[in-house]
Amino acid sequence: MKKVVVGISGGVDSSVAALLLKQQGYEVIGLFMRNWDSTINNDYLGNPNLNNDICPQEKDYNDALAVCQKLDIPLHRIDFVKEYWDYVFTYFLDELKKGRTPNPDVMCNKYIKFDLFVKEAEKLGADYIATGHYAKVIDGQLYKANDKNKDQSYFLAYVNKDMFKKVIFPLQDLTKPEIRKIASKYDLATANKKDSTGICFIGERNFTKFLENYLPNIPGKIVNIETNEVVGEHIGLMYYTLGQRRGLNLGGFKNKSYVAKKDIENNILYIATGDENKYLYSNEAIIEDFNFLTDKKITNCTCKFRYRQADIKCSVEYLENNKIKVIYDKAKAVTPGQFCVLYDGDLCLGGGIIEKVK
User: Fold this and answer.
1) Which of 75, 190, 226, 280 could form a disulfide with 68 if both were Cys (CB 3.0 to 4.6 A apart)?
2) From the candidates 68, 108, 303, 348, which is the catalytic residue?
């Protein structure tokens, strides 16, 4: 009997993943990861859970334990608090300091869930590892899940390609409503539990207050990029991302205002007005540190610059030092620091970090 170690988070997706694996005849072992400690990490400002009787991670662990007891599988617990800080959260803060838009979920998958977690699973004798991600693996290659609305291949495109040879995604052909239905049918404790939101493994926070725990606020001018007129004051460049419309607190404009550019050196936030403003759009991007998941070097494919974005037709030029140039017709708010992921149909070709756009 093959042994599978499944990441149990205390949510409904990983719970059903474990159930399905057991039904498929695997020897299933649960492994719960603890990656954040509010006390150790000075997580006080913006934290809504400080006065709760039990912190969210302990509640998640209790839910994970209840599911594993119901399924009659063992549950192990591992602490990656230091590693998460070193590999994910430090990156997150460094990118914000540079004025870029980080994606901690992508880095968490690369360094924690599909590296440190795998090593821990191997210590438990795992033949395979499994998670509750919505994605698909065929012959060791990453594909989109059947449920395109929930597909999470975008977040997995930075994982070392060798990892997919030993990964099972039990939810690959299921939709969220189907997963809820299965969890209810088998009376799992997580059947009606809400999906987790917020920062990966940290959870819901007042983002502005939360960052004050780690980075100083440096207010500055908001300037209209077309007229060079000062139109307001920002609370700190790290709180804004390109294309952002809400939270600018600007009045008096006939058209909607969007973040168009960040000048880190002079601490200026530039805005552009109107949905079709030329300063919001680009036609090409340089992607650095591209993680190739296949040997294919396709020149015409599709890409995503954000998770919920529809696929965009593009052409690709392969440069030196793991860089690529992605050329596309027109895309709004392509943002340095975010990830560009390439696809050939449903096959994920890999992903890298947006370095610059034009």
Assistant:
1) 75
2) 108
Low-confidence ranges of the chain (pLDDT < 50): none
Active-site residue flag, 55: no
* Answer CATH for 3-207 from 2.60.40.1930, 3.40.50.620, 3.30.1490.190, 3.40.1060.10: 3.40.50.620
- Domain 280-357 CATH class label: mainly beta
Question: Is 200 annotated as catalytic?
Answer: yes
For residue 264, the one-letter residue type is I
Domain boundaries, the chain: 3-207, 216-275, 280-357
Distance CA 20, CA 29 (A): 13
| pLDDT single digits (tens) 272-313 | 999 999 999 999 999 999 999 999 899 999 999 999 899 999
Is the pTM of the predicted complex or chain greater than 0.90? Answer: yes
pLDDT for res 170: 98
Pairwise CA distance, residues 254 & 252, whole Å: 7
Catalytic residue, from 55, 68, 200, 314: name it. Answer: 200
Q: CA separation (Å) from 228 to 99, 214, 232, 267?
A: 20, 32, 12, 14
pLDDT given for residue 183 in this prediction: 97
- The pLDDT, as a whole number, for residue 79 is 95
